[in-house]
Amino acid sequence: MEAGQEPPFAATGAPVLQHSRFHRLSDRWAHLAFLACSLLVVGLIGGILFFLASRGLAAFWPVAGNTGRTLSLSEVFLSTDWAPSSDHFGIVPFIAGSLGVTGLALLIAAPAGILTGVFIAKLAPTWMRNLMRQVMDLLVGIPSVVYGIFGLTVVLPFVSGTWLAEAPASGFAVAALILAVMIVPTIVSLSTDAFESLPTSLDEGAQALGSSRWQAIWHVLIPAARPRLLTAAVLGLGRAIGEAMAVQMVIGNNPQWMALMRESTDRAPFLRALFTPAATLTTELVQELPNTPAGSPWNNVLFAMGLLLYLLTMVLILATRRLGRGKEA
Amino acid sequence: MLTPTLPETKPIKLSVRNMAFSYGTKKVLDGLSMDIHAERVTAIIGPSGCGKSTFLKCFNRIHEVSSTVNVSGDMLIDGVDIYRGGIDEVDLRRRVGMVFQKPNPFPKSIYENVAFGPRLFGVTDRSSLDGIVEDALRKAALWDEVKDRLKESATGMSGGQQQRLCIARALAVNPEVLLMDEPCSALDPIATAKIEDLITDLKENLTIVIVTHNMQQAARVSDYTAFFWLGRLVEMDLTERIFTTPRVQMTEDYITGRFG
Amino acid sequence: MTPVLTFRRSRTSKFVDRLMRGVLWGLAILFVLVLVVFVGAILKQGWPVLNLGFLTKMPETLDAGGGIKPQIFNSLYLVVLSLGLSLPVGLGAGVYMAEYAGKGRMLNFLRLCIETLAATPSIVLALFGMIVFVQAMGWSFSIRSGALTLALLNIPVITRVTEVSLLAVPRELKEASYGLGATKLQTILKVTLPYAATGILTGLVLTAGRAFGESAILVFTAGTNASAHFPDFRLTVPGETLSVHLWYVTSDGTLPDAREIAAGTAAVVILVLLTLNLLVRLVDRAIRRRTRSGLFST
After folding, report:
1. CA-based nearest residue in chain B for residue A126
2. Whole-number Cα distances in Å, A297 to A56, A72, A80, A91
3. What is the pLDDT of residues B10-59, one digit of tens each?
4. Which of C1, C4, C5 to mutate against chain B (most B CBs within 10 Å)?
5. In the predicted model, what is the mean pLDDT of chain B?
6. What is the pLDDT of residue A13?
7. What's the pTM value of the predicted model, to 2 decimals?
8. How many domains does chain B have?
9. Among candidate residues A75, A85, A140, A100, the one with its CA nearest the CA of residue A252
């Protein structure tokens, strides 16, 4: 209210209340401030892309600041030969490693997570439902280094020396197992939501025809929830593919794993595949980035691997959008 | 006040004696007794919240899907107790089909919706399935409308068609009893009329129990009518008599719209 | 003409039903056991190491017997700083999405961005922080590089939590406020945000827990060294946290008692997170009770 000005009175004698200019202006400015916060997020998405691309793509273009030679796309993306000290920069072992360990983890986590989701949503008594929620909350809150140390000090010693593998037993199997436990809470919570949002009439309809509980789940509820279950699996996949520390601590960090797997013949092929020390995009970044000089082809290729991970994340998120749209149609 | 006295030639299919129902400590139904005859349509009417839908769901124990409930007294199907006679609830639901308030087709094709039940019971051979599906759709007066698009999704049909599909789906497992829980409450008058015609056709070899809040509907389709109020059976009689000369004043007040 | 069929339930379908119910119960119990074994193992390994000396001594670089005092400080300091940086942005963006964006393309696009940022692997955020703060700004491995990059991890979580909590506020409440002539900002500040406070606060504690456990980002931005001074509030010094320390001593391997240090550190991390989790529940319950007893009626 401006100074010296009496509030106008209506005929009834009651004051006619008006917003001061301060209120009106702050209302407008607040709108802009909130908008700015949102735009900052949008800017971040673009900024991350820009900076990662500026370093990652420098591997393939002669850019100022580069200290070594310019690489060709094929020698990076199509070669399995990773030996930076002798000028070989093939990252296929890391891409294959990421896909392998993630695929394996998803193979364990997706069925387990979806079934646990249906259990929580449809079968569990209330106390069990509450218990499971807490268990999943706690599992999701455990930091990845702690998962890593658990793998290193409990799971690896447990497996190594058995018929499965010699010490230290690092490789895809243990990494995937640890990863699976890490992503299960995501899949469980999303699939629980998916099953809970289905109308009870579907469940009742199936059981009114004489379905057993399981038949109703298997033939009606799971198909009806499929788009959202796929979304859950894709988001789990995204978490798994980007996980770095836990995997780095148990996978063995051997960029030459493909050759090693091919050459060694001492064990059954599937055991060799599961227990040969390997490496992934993320583990290699953690392992080598601190040791490489900026601007070198080696360093640039590592950033290109980061860029690849980021692009993969974007693709996966867009995929979940697609799936979501399929649900509405 | 129990069973109406008329020369009834059809046997008793369902019978209820001194039945009570509660959710936890809350009593919803109490002291119910009635007989329901085979190949007749029995309508249950009453103001909302009187427990008529709950009562209906006791016949196939479908409420056990979502909550723990307590039923006391006797509910018999062909003289065998539904709750204590050693009948498996899944077998019971095959024998006692149900059509719900809102059409609830599965998000599958029209064909797969109808074939769903038979498949559950191990019918896999294509030609038998085709036969069952066609037969059920014909009985539900839907065949001519959908025979050319059996592979299309059921969720794209109109509400009335969906409800008839749900009836066909229920018929496909050859039930002995069909429970209908306000089957027309979500439908327009034309679709309603079709379902009502269907009910009259279906009672040839089915026992039908229908819950409705539409008194004209009860008068049109049913042979017997039971009037519920606050979880109790007030009166049950031939529909004709309930609507012309009810014995209890409260029934008359309800059907003439003086309360409810 | 009507095919007379009798449907009988096969023994197998009954058996499968029993079996699968058993499998589902078994699976759920397995996850409970996994958690119990996990936390049990971490605490059991760390227990012998945990004592006042371990918590209050400075770390050693080459000899056994070091403590984790500066790492505890750095962890808390970085959590507080990163939350301080991300809270205004996250809240603002959340408020914008729930209250201003309306339904349509803009909102969809913003949600897409938030989802993408939330799904971005922390190692990718680490690379970004390394390029921008560590190298381009010339801040090297420092508390400020770490706090800023860690904030990027928090922002999408806070935004999402804020948006969800605000959307859960009953419309009648907001309408009542507008009905009295309140401006949008007044309504948000005086009615909507207080009502949503429980949800937002719970989300904040969870975000703090996540930031506390984060390691990948901090290895590349805050570094793997801790200041020799204590407490060192300078933003320009490297700030190794508990999680990073845990990883570093394990993978570096120059300490003779790396195993023990790692075990003790892991136990401390788990204990802090369990406490936070308990705190969330208590805060949640307390605020809910207060709200019911009339946060708005007074």
Report:
1. B67
2. 10, 11, 17, 13
3. 899 999 999 999 887 788 899 999 999 999 999 999 988 888 999 999 99
4. C5
5. 89
6. 55
7. 0.86
8. 1
9. A100
